[in-house]
Every structure is written in structure tokens, then in C-alpha cells.
Specification:
108 residues; mainly beta; 6-stranded antiparallel β-sheet; two-stranded antiparallel ribbon; 4% helix
């Protein structure tokens, strides 16, 4: 079982919870992304999770996060309800969320 709390390095688009944020997990920086969905006229109910390359990590605070996932390695998805935040919902997440990560299959 994974234990502990992971500091949120950056976050953007806060609506009830951060809708895009970066944490470091086992030495890798990871983006959790739940963008606004025009068709739903709201936010979805899951985060798409991406690994951030070392090169991108150096400039993550300087680039637009719109469609950032297109430039990153896809890891999978988790329901937004699977992410346990600290009381402020801005500082940390529980590392246990990585146990619930559902890898997405890509076409070969």
C-alpha cells in the first residue's frame, strides 16, 4: 500500500477542487488534468494523468496548460473522487491515488 502525502507543485483551474495540478511521485513529475468540457458545460468526473518529461518539467510554469497532455506521456485515468486532498485542497494529495490508476490502452 502506498502511504503518505505528495505536495502539489503547481495547480490551475480551481473549481471545487484543482482541475489541473502537478505532483512528484517516485521521482517523476505527474500532471493530473480535468479540463472544462464545453459539451457538458462543466468539468468531467475523472483526471487524465500524464508523466511530465524532465525537459518539460523545467518550464512547466512557463507554458500554457491548454492541451498540455498532447505533449506528455499518457499514464491513465482516475475518478476525481479517488483523489484525496488536504483540507485546503491546494497543498497535497494522498499518494494512495496511484493504486487506483487505470492505464489507458493505446492502439499499436
Amino acid at each position: 500500500m502506498t502511504e503518505g502525502w505528495l505536495p502539489i507543485r503547481y495547480y490551475r483551474d480551481f473549481y471545487d477542487i484543482p482541475r489541473a495540478f502537478v505532483v512528484e511521485h517516485v521521482g517523476q513529475h505527474v500532471l493530473f488534468d480535468c479540463p472544462f468540457n464545453d459539451a457538458l458545460d462543466g468539468y468531467g468526473d475523472e483526471y487524465t494523468i500524464y508523466r511530465i518529461s524532465d525537459e518539460m518539467r523545467e518550464r512547466i510554469d512557463q507554458v500554457s496548460w491548454t492541451n498540455l497532455g498532447n505533449q506528455l506521456q499518457l499514464l491513465g485515468v482516475v475518478p476525481t473522487t479517488a483523489v484525496r486532498f488536504d483540507a485546503t485542497k491546494r497543498l497535497e494529495i494522498s499518494a494512495e491515488v496511484f493504486e487506483r490508476l487505470k492505464p489507458l490502452r493505446t492502439k499499436d
